[in-house]
Amino acid sequence: MGHFRDLPIAKKINWSILLTSFSALLIAGLAIISYELATFRNVALHDLNILAGVVGTNCTGALAFEDTEAATAILGNLREEDSLSGARIFSRDGRPFASYLRTEAPHVALPEEAEPDKIYMEANRIRLFRSIRYREGDSIGTIYLDSSLAKVHARLWRYAGIIVLVIVLLFPLVFIVSIGLQRIITDPIKDLATVASSIAEQKNYSFRARKHSRDEIGRLTDSINHMLESIEARDTKLVQQADELWRSNNELEQFAYVSSHDLQEPLRKVTVYAQLLEQENSDNPKPNTRKYVENISASVARMRNLIHDLLSYSRIHGAALSRETVNLNDVVRQLLEEMEPTISQKNAVVSVGQLPVVEANASQMSQVFQNLISNALKFSGAAPRVEISSEQVGDEVVIKVADNGIGINEKYRDQIFKVFQRLHGKDEYPGTGIGLAICKKIIEQHGGKIWVDSILEKGSTFFFTLKRPQGDSNP
Ligand code: ADP
Question: Which of 54, 201, 259, 396 falls 20 to 30 Å from 11 in CA-CA distance?
């Protein structure tokens, strides 16, 4: 049965039609044969009874006059009855009086004693005892007939043969009809299956299934086509929306880039005029002028940093990201060389464990490490310690930048990754609040995640994940 379930639908239908037709024919044949068997046997019994009556009546005279020869002659006429194997007349006292035995049936044993009226229905023959009465009076003898059922059986065998022949002759006809019927059922299903697999392979929702009929499969085809239309319409809308989103995002980035760039020019002028003001007043300094000029310069420096960071943020384009094989050990080594003055000034110790080789944009990776390491140095205590390490988890690498700094309150751990979100005033710790937003944007564009774990006053550990390069067999 399990094997049958796995057969293609076409074969299942063919087999079902063939088996049902032959079962029906077989059952009908068996019913006919059983009915005929019962009927033939009853008819044979009925005929034998009549024959016993007629022969018995014919023999009454011979019995009355004890004329054995006459009785034997009457019995001899029974040779005309093919199915009769033997017959015997018994006298009133139950002893054999006259007998007949068909020459083709010498093996048949005739009874030696008469029995009361009785019928023996046996598998291959019918035997019958019947008393002979003169004018419905007392019994004057008994007739015994032995009839073979061979003819009846031969007829039934012929019937069975005809049924088998009909089945064999019907086979090609049923087969051809079943193929025709099966196609009507399976062709629409095959069409649906082909359309479904084409859509799955090509992700093309413009395919439609052909409707063959108005039955359940026809309705299913309508529903599937309707669903495909909706998916296609939604797909087109999504593509349009993604297009629009990309365009407006691009415009926004362009705008941020251009305006940040243009803002630098007036800033430079403010710096120059502040310096000129300072020079003009250098001979005859007014008490507050120097302080004001210093404040202007500090604000300009902050503004410049802000513009610089905004520019960096707006330059991160995911679509145009070029990736290469990057050894993060080299990236961090070079970065630490550049940051050496700050590290020495802070009296910090930066230790670096083994880092992976990844498929990434090298300069963006450098920027992520730079932002995280500078934060670790910035938000630190007296003797800053920074540890950079990595670990492989499944098909990703997790990179950690840990410090022993001031830590981050738990409720702000997600907030600090948003643009301009800072937990301290600029007089306490300088900064623009863009560094971690840049890290998040870069890591997410590389398909990774970034998060932080921290204990206040003890330190923070920043984690980010990157995909392991394909074919990297390291455990
Ligand atoms: P910025 O450093 O310019 O303020 P960031 O986006 O880099 O901006 O960081 C946002 C805020 O997250 C910081 O102002 C600071 O409050 C907090 N922060 C970042 N890194 C650390 C760190 N290593 N330890 C403690 N706080 C940190």
Answer: 201
